[in-house]
What does this fold into?
Amino acid sequence: MARIALFGGHGKVALHLERLLADAGHETSAFIRNPDHADDVRAAGGTPVVADVEQLDIAALAELLQGHDAVVWSAGAGGGNPERTYSVDRDAAIESMTAAQQAGVHRYVMVSYFGARPDHGVPEDNSFYPYAEAKAAADAHLRGTDLEWTVLGPSALTLDPPTGRIEIAGQGARDKGQVSRADVAGVVAAVLERPDTAGRTIEFNNGDTPIAEALDALE
It folds into this structure.
C-alpha cells in the first residue's frame, strides 16, 4: 500500500483517481479547499484534507506531505481569473514541489495538458494565455528538480466513460484530440505504479491501445 498526496482532490479527474487508488489498496490524502466537498471525496475512497494551497506556505505544505510516498498535482484555478491562475497553477504548484523535496517525497506526477511548453503559441489576448504560461512555468520547474517526476499531457478533456485505451505522442497521438477524464485518472494510476516513467513527459489522447501497453511501448 502506498500513501498518495493528491492536490485538487475534488476535481473530476481526482475523484476518478481516488476510486482507482482505493481499489488498488492505496490510501489517498485528497487536499480540498471547500470542506463541503469532503463527503464526495470519502465516497470516492479518498481521505479529505481541508487545505487551501493558495494560503499555505512551503513549510505548511511540507508538513502535510510528511509520510506520503508520492504527490499528484491535479489542482487548478479553473480559469477566468488570471491572477488566481498564476497563484495556483504556477506559484502553488512550484511551492508543492519544494515542499515535496523538504518532506522527502520523491515521486511527483504533474497533470498538465497536451502542448504545454514555453513556446505554446497561445496569443496574449486569449483567455487561455495565463493558464498556458502558468503550466509552462510549473512544468519547467518540475523538470529542473531532483524529484522523480512525470509530466502528463492529456488533450481536451471529456466526461465520456473510461475506455482504458489511449494513444501517446510519438505513437500516433496528435494535439487537438480528446481524452476522457476517467482515462486520465487511469494513466495517473498506472504511472504511479511504474517508476520507469520518471523523467518522462507523456502526452496522450484516447486511442486504441490499452494504457499498460501504451506505457510499455515508450521508448
